[in-house]
Amino acid sequence: MANTLLVLNAGSSSLKFSLFELPAQGKLQAVAVGQIEGLGGAPHLEARDGDGRPLADIRWDSGQLTTHAAALQQIDALLRERFSKLQLLGVGHRVVHGGAQHSAPLLITPAALDTLATFIPLAPLHQPHNLAAIRALQQSHPGLPQVACFDTAFHRTQLDIGEYYGLPYEYYQRGVRRYGFHGLSYEYIAATLPSVAPAIADGRVIVAHLGSGASLCAMHRRRSVGSSMGFTALDGLMMGTRPGNIDPGIVLYLLQHEGLTPAEIQELLYKRSGLLGLSGISNDMRLLEASDAPRARLAIDHFVYRIQREIGALAAVLGGLDALVFTGGIGENSVAIRRQICTHATWLGVDLDPAANERGETCLTRAGSAVSAWVVPTNEELMIARHTRAVLGV
Ligand code: ADP
Question: What's the CA gap between 221 and 95, in Å, rounded?
Answer without folding.
Answer: 25
